[in-house]
């Protein structure tokens, strides 16, 4: 959940017969289903990419923060206070502008999941302490998988699946769904939208890539 961005992906189905011993190491529907269920039980959180708090909003009404933070404040999940920040204006001149700083309330902190979130780009890797999470996913159906291939010294593939989603009660309100369109798409896609997760063959069977430290 942007461990929480949800995108429809095309199915590239395939089959593979594992060459290493042990039934749990075979590349089949039963083992891949078990790997998905384990992954979603541990990491199936739908989050809002609100890694770092407080959140400061200044000026531009087109900024998503300007739409989203007041909604969380009205729900009692965030508390705002007026402040000022310094920005560079024309000619790199420092300008002081009015802003509003939002912090999580005691109620809001109930939804902040303290599980590290790693964001990778071409230039760097950033680890955040957690994220603000509002729903959980469960496996609906394993649609298919790519033919496993060796990569970086281990057998890997990716699994395509549909999901069931259970949001917290306030996440279903019209104001929240309007402010957080990615969440709205996730709810609308229950049972139909296809997601993909990478898995690899570990000593004890197939596991999601981000769950195994080898």
> Which class of secondary structure composition applies to the elements?
alpha+beta
Number of distinct beta strands: 12
Instruction: Summarize the main sheet.
Output: 7 strands, antiparallel
Dominant shape: elongated
Query: Percent range for helical residues?
Result: 10-25%
Q: Enumerate how many helices there are, as a single number.
A: 4
Strand content: 35-45%
End-to-end Cα distance, whole Å, is 24 Å
How would you summarize this macromolecular structure in one to three sentences?
The protein is of the alpha+beta class and 214 residues long.
Describe this structure in words.
The structure is a single chain. The protein has 214 residues and is of the alpha+beta class. It has helices spanning 29-43, 64-74, 174-179, 181-188; strands spanning 45-47, 55-57, 78-88, 94-104, 112-113, 117-120, 125-128, 131-145, 149-151, 154-167, 195-202, 205-208. Strands 1, 5, 8, 9, 10, 11 and 12 form a 7-stranded antiparallel β-sheet that branches. The chain is elongated and about 65 Å long. Residues 1-21 have low confidence and may be disordered.
């Amino acid at each position: 959940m942007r461990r929480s961005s949800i995108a429809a992906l095309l199915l590239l189905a395939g089959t593979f017969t594992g060459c290493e011993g042990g039934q749990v190491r075979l590349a089949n529907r039963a083992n891949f289903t078990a790997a998905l269920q384990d992954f979603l039980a541990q990491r199936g959180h739908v989050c809002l990419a609100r890694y770092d708090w407080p959140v400061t909003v200044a000026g531009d009404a087109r900024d998503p923060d300007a739409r989203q933070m007041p909604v969380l404040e009205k729900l009692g999940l965030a508390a705002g206070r007026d402040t000022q920040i310094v920005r560079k204006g024309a000619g790199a001149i420092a300008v002081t502008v009015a802003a509003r700083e939002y912090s999580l309330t005691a109620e809001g902190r109930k939804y902040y999941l303290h599980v590290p979130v790693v964001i990778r780009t071409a230039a760097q890797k950033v680890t955040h302490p957690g994220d603000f999470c509002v729903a959980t996913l469960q496996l609906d159906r394993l649609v298919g998988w790519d033919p496993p291939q060796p990569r970086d010294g281990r057998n890997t593939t990716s699994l395509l699946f549909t999901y069931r989603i259970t949001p917290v009660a306030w996440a279903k309100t019209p104001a929240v769904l309007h402010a957080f369109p990615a969440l709205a798409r996730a709810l609308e896609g229950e049972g139909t939208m296809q997601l993909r997760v990478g898995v690899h063959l570990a000593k004890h069977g197939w596991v999601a890539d981000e769950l195994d430290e080898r």
